[in-house]
TrEMBL record:
Keywords: FAD, Flavoprotein, Oxidoreductase
Entry's Gene Ontology molecular function annotations: FAD binding; oxidoreductase activity
Pfam families tied to this protein: FAD-oxidase_C, FAD_binding_4
Sequence intervals crossing the membrane: none
UniProt-listed InterPro entries: FAD-bd_oxidored_4_C, FAD-bd_PCMH, FAD-bd_PCMH-like_sf, FAD-bd_PCMH_sub1, FAD-bd_PCMH_sub2, FAD-linked_Oxase-like_C, FAD-oxidored/transferase_4, Oxid_FAD_bind_N
Protein name according to UniProt: FAD-binding oxidoreductase
Lineage, broadest ranks: Bacteria, Pseudomonadati, Pseudomonadota, Gammaproteobacteria, Oceanospirillales
Protein's GO biological process: respiratory electron transport chain
Similarity-based family: Belongs to the FAD-binding oxidoreductase/transferase type 4 family.
Annotated PANTHER family: D-2-HYDROXYGLUTARATE DEHYDROGENASE, MITOCHONDRIAL
Domain FAD-binding PCMH-type residue range list: 35-214
Cofactor: FAD
Length: 460
């Protein structure tokens, strides 16, 4: 151990090799808070070459590596539980080589999501991948989990904005993938294989990200809804009448948590069972008239019981708080999260079946529903009772998973829509992937990481 520490310090310097327990607990954990961290050391390299040298050293000493970004993950994908080396990429935080013609910019893996969003805005452009953890999540981690967020309906996932990647392999080789080309028909696209691989095939150190034109006058509707079938009717109705950027859903229980946590006022005089948040571009009167007409038609059909339409960017941001503050407001419980997805057309039916199962079989647990209904992604958060220890809570929730995932399998859904598989979901991969698919995934892992040193025990 002492020899390994000495060699690590030779590579990156004394200040960036961390062995104190407080540092190890910090860097060895993510937001899931369901696993006890136990790393052997944490390191913070400052360049691609330093990452490569650390990987070579670990390979030679048979030390496993857990890549670490902003540690905002919710599936245990960045948790070091078994004496691994935590490789933090937070010092790789430079933005460089902005190309206004190609609309691309190079980002180190440690660039904060909001940092990229702000850079794009300063240059008259837009980075559209957005979510509640944008102020602390990092681009490398977003790519490793193919993060989605609130604007997938219009702009797609992180995958759609990655023009090129720099990746360090398990042997310490540095790969430059795709070189930001728009068209490149030269065989397997290893860039896309790395995206969503959760650090199990290679360590993403840099990415060339695409940027877009900014939306014109984003406008938000917050709608109060009395039942789940109405949510599905509203999705179909607004998609037919408005070019949507986001269509979000949350329950009354979720709203109560956010209002208490952020000290917000209730948006409506009377509470409702569910709420829908709709965002769309509204650059002129014609678009606003269409939005009002769609709103009035939905009310006439009984699909909503109340609503607010933002009249300014500030009010739009205020309405978003009711949705974006949910994860933060329940993080301290901690919640047992199910990040699941079905086709958007099946969301209503699926949600009813799962909600009925959970409330019937686990009446003592508080369940918080929210999600990106527009792309079929739902978040079921079961909150840990105050008088229950974490291990008992995990075991109890795990008993429910086969039943929930069996329902999900009947809808041909995914056990993980955007949070990744990590430690939390790996035992349930067969509910979304066939035996043949899993065998091929394991074979791919063997090719890229034959000694299993890259984030072992995660995903597979």
């Amino acid at each position: 151990m002492s020899d390994l520490i000495r060699q690590l310090k030779d590579i990156i310097g004394d200040n960036y090799v961390l062995t104190d327990k407080s540092d190890l607990d910090n860097y060895g954990q993510d937001w899931s808070r369901l696993y006890q961290p136990d790393p052997i050391v944490a390191v913070r390299p400052g360049s691609n070459q330093e990452v490569a040298e650390i990987v070579k050293l670990c390979q030679a000493n048979k030390v496993s590596i857990v890549p670490s970004g902003g540690r905002t993950g919710l599936s245990g994908g960045a948790v070091a539980t078994n004496q691994e080396l935590v490789l933090s990429l937070d010092r790789l935080n430079q933005i460089a080589n902005f190309n206004p013609v190609d609309r691309t910019v190079e980002c180190g893996a440690g660039v904060i999501t909001q940092q990229l969003q702000d850079f794009a805005s300063e240059n008259g452009l837009f980075y559209p991948v957005d979510f509640a953890s944008a102020g602390s999540s990092q681009i490398g981690g977003n790519i490793a989990t193919n993060a989605g967020g609130i604007k997938v309906l219009k702009y797609g996932l992180t995958r759609d904005w990655v023009a090129g990647l720099t990746v360090v392999t398990s042997e310490g080789e540095i790969l430059e993938l795709n070189h930001a080309l728009v068209k490149n028909a030269t065989g397997y696209d290893l860039r896309h294989l790395m995206i969503g691989s959760e650090g199990t095939l290679g360590i993403i150190t840099q990415a060339t990200m695409r940027l877009a034109n900014p939306p014109q006058e984003p406008t938000v509707m917050l709608l109060a809804v009395s039942d789940l079938p109405s949510v599905s009717h509203l999705l179909e109705h607004f998609q037919s009448n408005i070019d949507l950027m986001a269509f979000e859903f949350f329950s009354q229980q979720a709203l109560e948590k956010v209002m208490a946590h952020r000290e917000l006022k209730t948006p409506f005089a009377d509470s409702a069972e569910f709420y829908v948040l709709v965002e769309f571009e509204c650059p002129g009167e014609a678009e606003m008239e269409k939005a009002f007409a769609a709103f009035e038609s939905a009310a006439e059909n009984g699909w909503l019981v109340d609503g607010i339409i933002s009249q300014s960017n500030q009010q739009a941001e205020e309405l978003w708080q009711y949705r974006e503050g949910i994860s933060e407001s329940i993080a301290h419980y901690p919640p047992y999260k199910n990040d699941i997805a079905v086709k958007p057309s099946l969301v209503g039916e699926f949600l009813q079946q799962v909600d009925s199962f959970v409330t019937t079989n686990y009446p003592a647990f508080e369940n918080i529903w929210f999600g990106h209904i527009g792309d079929g992604n739902l978040h079921l958060n079961i909150l840990k009772p105050e008088n229950m220890d974490v291990e008992t809570f995990k075991e109890t929730c795990a008993k429910a998973n086969p039943e929930i995932f069996s329902i999900l399998k009947g809808f041909n859904g995914s056990i993980s829509a955007e949070h990744g598989v990590g430690l939390l979901k790996k035992d349930y991969l067969n509910y979304s992937r066939s035996d043949t698919e899993i065998a091929l995934m394991k074979a791919v892992k063997k090719v890229f990481d034959p000694n299993n040193i890259l984030n072992p025990g995660k995903l597979l």
